[in-house]
Amino acid sequence: MATPDLSPMEAKLVAALPEEPGWQFEPKWDGFRALVFRRGDAVEILSKSGKPLDRYFPEIVATIAAVDCPDFVLDGELLLPVGDVLSFDALQARLHPAPSRIRRLSQETPAQLMLFDCLAIDDELLFCAPLHERRAALEGFHQAHGGPSLLLSHRTQDLDIARTWLAQGGGALDGVVAKRLDEPYRPGERAMLKVKQHRTADCVVGGFRHTQEGDGIASLLLGLYDDAGLLHHVGFTSAIAAAERRALLRKLGPLIAPPGFTGKAPGGPSRWNNGAGSEWVPLRSELVVEVLYDQVTGDRFRHGTKLLRWRPDKAPAQCGMEQLVHEVRPAEVSTLSEPAA
User: How many other CB atoms sit within 10 Å of the CB of residue 140?
Assistant: First the structure.
């Protein structure tokens, strides 16, 4: 079967799920997006950017190669359960140059592939077919070939169920995706909608980094206390209006004093500052801010956070690690509604 060059259909971030009929809602999984190609004995797994992933997940390659169907193209998400969480950290650890390490990790902590679209099967190309036809083909494929490593994502057309998924506590979901039932697969286009699950935390401002010019605040460095009373660096926020950066530096000046963080401290150059402005300035632990975050990996905010407000009413000692909602937990995922007809 000849298949065209494909890239994953993407989603546009919106504030709320669509209310009109004709939409299918699915969980937004927190893993590595992957297109899976099977052509005879050949198996290829491509990332969202088109880079090959198959060498990093040999157990998934073996699972796909064992399917009794010679030609298909699937869209899904690579997930990796470690203990009671789906660990994004463990997924990143797989992107390692040493084949021996990858082989060992694939045996110790095997990955899973969560399927949510079928773009081709046998000699039939489906990417031009509407979603409801592709979903029927996917469910038939999974019924015949699914297993512990090859999973089928939930779906529903019930907006109330989708809102319940979005509102569920803990780290059960990264959000919800909405897809039109009557539309084809649109490679590379933001033809889906997504509502991400965001959470807030009150954090101590343990330090800051200067702007490149040195006359303002580029980012605030955030900390949380552990049970032993140590303040650990957990992330940053750079969501500061340009007009406020100089005034904020004047405000923070009297609070400059070491050590800033008594536990894990900020590092040096990073991808956020392009290797510049790596020095950070410590502050006395007196100021608290409330920030909006999406995901946590290894007791740190995975991405930059959004500054919501200053919290002069909050004592720094009240800002603990227990606020962090960690990676997806399989036990929580199992409480979702079964795929709806």
Answer: 12
Q: Annotated catalytic sites, by residue?
A: 28
pLDDT tens readout for residues 94-141: 999 999 999 999 999 999 999 999 999 998 999 999 999 999 999 999
The structural architecture, per CATH, of the domain 199-323 is Beta Barrel (2.40)
- Mean pLDDT to the nearest integer, 258-273: 74
CA distances from 99 to 64, 90, 134, 290 (A): 20, 16, 36, 43
At 71 the pLDDT is 95
Whether 198 and 167 have beta carbons less than 8 Å apart is answered as no
d(CA 65, CA 38): 7
Provide the pLDDT confidence category of residue 238 given band limits of 50, 70 and 90: very high
Cα separation, 146 vs 143, in Å, equals 6
Residue 41, φ and ψ in degrees, nearest 5: -85, -5
CA distances from 217 to 115, 188, 214, 270 (A): 44, 37, 8, 17
Extents of the domains making up the chain: 10-197, 199-323
Residue 263 confidence (pLDDT) above 80 = yes
* The predicted structure's pLDDT at residue 118: 97
What does the mean pLDDT of the chain come to? 89
Q: What is the CATH code of the structural domain delimited by 10-197?
A: 3.30.470.30
Backbone Cα Rg of the chain: 23
